[in-house]
Write a structure and sequence with these properties.
binds nicotinamide-adenine-dinucleotide; alpha/beta; single chain; 6-stranded parallel β-sheet; 16% strand
């Protein structure tokens, strides 16, 4: 089934109308901010909200994209119980050979390799013996690969951002609904120790009513973006013409879960501003040799993009993106409610004096002092919030997770997804999350292009965002 058969005729017309910069965003020609969020196209299948996986005793797994991220995901999957690695794919044969060798080194049968060009992933997806395909390729490949995996009968785990344009977001939703397969966003940051601790506290009412969050992807990638390998081969190009928040999901995913987005609330609108675009130029002028062709490139993306998102319940979220300034890494991960405020980097919390959940009176500090939140405090402070609210996934998996990437959250994410498949559970994250958390890339570009005009989020759930989930 081609992409087009999944779209309504009106949707095809809408896409054909797009030209120029608007086309690049999947927006209608001459779009105003409000037109950036067209009404949902007619549903082609039933919702995937709350749909459990069929039970899988073993999870037959394949990986598309054996680069930096894919290799790390594969390593995690080799440690997650119940996974059989059946196939690996990359356009670079050496990367496939390396992935195959890693599987064999772990004492498993050699997976089949797919290396015959840009579209060999389609052959992998047609095998018919796969339960789960991870997609860890450059952004422009995520949607065609996820669609092929779903149409081939597997569930898809798609790296971030799962889609680049709004049109692509709808394609993921429509394909997941039509094929009855889940398209799970691989947002590992939702499984960090701090993020899951905060989520548990939110659910226990520690924050009272939520009002505001601040989150970001702030990561100095300048050196990486100019390398002649890995992300240096494609990620810098995204800065040539696009100007907005190119990588929204690491910050926004955890906040969306705190705020029950798609589970009682939804992202409704966004305004966005970008700072001047200077960081990449200054860096390459300093770091690259005279005559290097990269010195002639020009970049459109503002160094710092700041977007402000409002939810249907009126909550506000500041969402930032900066990968080209000299700054320490941060996703900010700040959450405010009527009874407490949490902020990360480093993790800390402030309780209102009236907060009944504060561990003891001394934790409701007077004045403006934060209380430190420390994973290692668990041993010495048995009634501290670190013990009371640690997520059961971390209590169970901490030792194994510690060996994995990004402080362990990568392993927790993959372990949990495989657990959902093996036990026939509803996945934590679904295609509506993939769409709603990826959409700010296109929406921020649209808002920035129109002097920060407000743009509306599409409702990818088609009206089903209000239902609470178990
Ligand atoms: N969740 C995280 O923490 C995290 C971290 C890093 C990267 N990522 C995401 O993972 C994805 C991959 O990033 P990366 O750092 O591994 O980049 P990378 O460039 O190291 O790897 C991408 C791989 O995809 C392969 N590829 C490209 N086109 C292909 C095709 N048509 N068929 C098969 N293979 C193809 C490339 O050869 C390369 O090996 C990106 O979406 C990125 O945003 C996520």
């Amino acid at each position: 089934m081609s992409d087009d058969t999944l779209r309504s005729p009106s949707r095809r017309r809408w896409i054909r109308a797009a030209t120029g910069a608007a086309a690049a965003l999947g927006l209608p020609r001459g779009s105003t901010a409000q037109q950036a969020s067209p009404a949902a196209p007619p549903r082609r299948g039933a919702t995937m909200i709350g749909v459990p996986f069929a039970k899988h005793e073993r999870v037959r797994f394949a990986l598309v994209g054996c680069g930096g991220r894919g290799s790390s995901l594969l390593d995690d999957m080799l440690h997650v119980p119940g996974v059989e690695v059946k196939a690996v794919c990359d356009i670079v044969p050496e990367k496939v050979a390396k992935a195959q060798a890693a599987v064999e080194k772990a004492g498993r049968p050699k997976p089949e390799g797919y290396t015959k060009g840009d579209h060999d992933f389609e052959n992998l997806c047609r095998r018919g013996d796969l339960d789960l395909v991870y997609v860890a390729t450059p952004w422009n490949w995520h949607v065609p690969m996820a669609v092929a995996a779903l149409q081939g009968g597997a569930h898809a785990g798609v790296e971030v951002p799962s889609a680049v344009t709004l049109d692509e977001c709808w394609t993921l939703v429509d394909t997941s609904e039509a094929t009855r397969r889940h398209c799970v966003i691989l947002e590992n940051c939702c499984y960090g120790w701090s993020e899951l601790l905060v989520l548990q506290m939110v659910r226990a009412g520690v924050f009272g009513d939520l009002t505001h969050a601040e989150c970001a992807y702030i990561h100095d990638l300048r050196s990486l973006l100019f390398q002649d390998e890995g992300e240096g081969l494609w990620r810098r190009f995204e800065h040539f013409k696009r100007n907005g928040n190119l990588y929204p999901t690491h910050g926004l995913g955890p906040v969306a879960l705190y705020m029950d987005v798609n589970r009682g609330d939804r992202f409704e609108r966004l305004v966005s501003m970008s700072s001047p675009s200077l960081g990449l130029q200054r860096y390459r002028d300093r770091a690259l040799a005279a005559g290097d062709p990269k010195r002639t490139e020009s970049y459109a993306c503002g160094d710092m993009n700041t977007s402000l998102v409002q939810t249907a319940k009126g909550r506000t979220v500041v969402l930032q993106h900066d990968v080209v300034s000299p700054r320490p890494y941060s996703r900010i991960n700040m959450l405010s409610g009527t009874l407490a405020t949490f902020a990360d980097y480093p993790p800390r919390i402030f309780f209102d004096a009236s907060n009944p959940h504060a561990p003891r009176p001394r934790d409701t500090k007077s004045g403006h002092q934060w209380r430190k939140v420390e994973q290692k405090r668990k041993k010495r402070d048995k009634d501290g919030i670190e013990n009371r609210f640690e997520h059961p996934l971390w209590t169970r998996l901490e030792r194994d997770a510690k060996k994995s990437g990004h402080g362990g959250m990568d392993y927790v994410m993959s372990w949990r997804l495989v657990q959902c498949l093996r036990e026939g559970l509803v996945p934590d994250l679904d295609v509506y999350d993939a769409a709603a958390w990826s959409a700010p890339a296109a929406l921020s570009e649209a808002s920035v292009a129109q002097k920060s005009a407000p743009v509306e989020f599409p409702d990818f759930t088609r009206g089903q965002w209000q239902a609470k989930r178990a």
